[in-house]
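Attaching the record inline, Q. Sequence:
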Amino acid sequence: MSISYEALADLRSKSAKDALSPDSSYIKIRKQLDLSLKNGDVTRAAICYQQIGDILFEEGAMSQALSYYHKADGYFKKDTSLLNLGNNLNRIGRIYFKNNRSATALANFREALRVFQIEGNHRGIAESYGYIGQVYEQKGAYDSSHIYQELALSEFKSLNDKSQIAFTYSRIGSIYEDQGKFQPALKYFLAAYRIYNDGPAKVELAAVLNNIGDTYRKMGNYLQALSYSKKAELLSARLHDNRQLSSAHRDLAKTFEQLGSFDSAYYYSEKSRLAYSKSYNTDSEERLNLIQTLFDVQRKDNEILQLENKNRVSQIITISVFVISILATFLGVSLLSRQRLKIKNSKDLYETRQKSMELELHNKHLHQEGLKAELELRSKELTSITLHMIKKNEVLEELKSKLASIVKDDKRDQRKELKQLLEQIDVNSNQDKNWEDFRVVFEYVHKDFFEKLIKHSGLLTTTDLRFLALLKMNLNSADIATMLAVSQTSLRTTRYRLRKKLQLPEEASLQNFIHNL
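Structure, as predicted:
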C-alpha cells in the first residue's frame, strides 16, 4: 500500500526535525521562551511558541500544539513582518486538516496565501497552494486539488527547489492514485524518484520507492513491483525508519500474494507487523517522555508561582498593617471629604462611560454604513458587468446572424473567409476576460457561494458554476442563454443535468435551492 498523502506531509516535518529528542528539544526551547518573555522580546517569544507547537504536532499532541500556535499567532499579529504570521496560519490549518475540519483548515490556508501574496513571498505562496490542494483531495474534489498542486509545482519550479518539486510530484501522483489512474500516477512518482535519487538517501526516497512499487502492483506488473519494493525495504532498513520498512514489507506481502507465493506473503506480512510495532513503540516512548517533560515543567512552574504568591501575600500583609495603622489616624478627618470625592468621581465616571458608549455606537453606525455602501457599489458593479456581457453577446449573435445570411449568398468566393469569421466570433463569445471580473465581484457580493456549491457536489464544472451564479442573480433564461452563448434548448438540458449533479428531488426547485444556499 502506498504511503498516504498526509503521511507525505509528515515526512517533510520529520526530516527537518532537530537531532535532539522531543523532550530535550522542548526543554531547550522552553528556556529560550522564558528568557524572551523576561527580556520583552515579543518576536522571539512567538517563534519559541511556534517551535514548541511544531514539536507537539510531530508527536501527535494536536490540541496542545494548537494552543501554542494560537499563542504565537497573538504575538505575530503585533509584528510588522507578515511572513511569520503566514507560516503560523499554515501550521494552524494543518491541525484542523488532521482533525478533518476541512472548512476551518481551508480558511486558514487561504488567509496564509493572501498574506504571502501581499508580501510577494513565492515559497509561502507555493506551500499554501499545496495545503489548499490537500484539503480539496480530502474532500474528494480531485480536479480542484490537481489545479492547486500544479500551481504549487509552478512556484517551486520558479524557485528551482528540487526537493519541493519532487515532493509536489509525489502529491500529484497520490491524487491520480486515489482516482485509480495508475499510469499518470506512476509518471509523477517516477519523476519524484529521479530527483530524490540524485541526492543523498533519505526517508522521502524510501517513501516514493514504496509508492512506485505499490502502483506497479496495482497495474499488475508484479516483477517491477517486487523490484521497487525491495529497494524501498533496503533503503528503509539502512535509514532505520521502521514506518517505511513496514510499508515496504506490506507491499511485498501483497505482491507475493498476487503471485500465489503464500509462504513469502505470510513471511513479509509478519515482518511488516514487527516493523510497525517497533515504529509504534518508538513513537509512543517519545510521546510519553514529552508528556512527562511537559508535566514536570508545568509542575515546577506551579511551584514557583505558589512560592511567589506566598511571598507576595506576606508582603501585602505587612504593608497592609502599616497602611491600616496610618489610615486609622486620619480616618475620622478624611471620611467626609472622601465621600464627597467618591460621589464626584462616580458622576464623572458615569458621564465618561456615557460619552464612550455614544462614540462607540456612532463608530459602529459609520462602519455599517460604509459596509452597506461598499456592498451596494459591488452589486452595481456586478450588474454593470453582467449587462455588458449580455449586450456584447447580443451584438455577437446579431453579427453572427448577418454573417450567416451572407454565407448563404451565391458569392462562393467569400464563404471560406466568412465561415472563419463566424468561428472566431463563436470562440470570442465564450472566452471573454469579463468572466473573471464577474467572478471576482460576484464572490464579494455572494461570499462563499462557489465554495458551498463545490462542497455540496464535487462534480460541478466551471460552466455549471457560471450558470448557477447567473441563476443566483435572478436573470431570465434568455439573458442566461445569451451570456453563456447557448440555445434555450441547451439551457434546459443544463438545468436537468445540474439537478442530477446536485441530487435534487423531483419536487424541489433549482431556483429555490440556489437562493437558499
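The two ends are 39 Å apart (CA to CA). Residues 262-407 form the longest helix (146 residues).

More tomorrow.
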